[in-house]
Amino acid sequence: MVAPQLVDRLDECRALERLLDTVREGMSQTLVIRGEPGIGKTVLLDYVTVSAADFRIERVVGIESEMEFGFATLHQLLLPFLAGLDYLPQPQRDALGSAFGLVAADRDNRFLVALAALSLLANAAIDQPILCVIDDAQWLDRESAEGSRR
């Protein structure tokens, strides 16, 4: 059932349902909802979260005060998955560990950080699909935002 505030958003709700169905079939999907403040983007995110009851849901929010902290949003997103860090190849493990301040590394390798994030999520999604919902993306730190565009 569509919430009253979504009655005029049936097309968007159907698109979100199609996205979830595609993921249930084993395909990866990405969707960005853009628009002016106050048009109901967060309500649509709430809708897709409720519609994905069979998914593992990780929801994070960009925080303006954390914009200067590299990988802050990525850390927020991946924290529940860090137990899988030991299963990553050493270069990925070191890069992500360095980005999160868990290990010292010689240099910053953002490609390996992004690859490690993808690997962690892919490994976790083997048993159950994962829905990553990021709200207030305008407040993402630069490093997390750049990785999300790869």
Rg is: 16 Å
Share of β-strand residues: 5-15%
Kindly name the structural category.
mainly alpha
- Count of distinct structural domains: 2
**Helix share of residues?**
40-55%
- Tell me the number of strands: 2
Mean of all residue-level pLDDT scores:
89
Output the strand order for the largest sheet: 1-2
What is the global morphology? globular
- The succession of helices and strands, N to C, reads HHEHHHEH
Largest sheet: 2 strands, parallel
How many separate helices?
6
Flag low-confidence runs.
none
- End-to-end distance: 35 Å
Write the layout of secondary structure elements.
Elements: H1 10-24, H2 41-51, E1 56-61, H3 72-78, H4 90-99, H5 110-124, E2 130-135, H6 142-148
Parallel strand pairs: 1-2
Helix pairs in contact: 1-2, 4-5
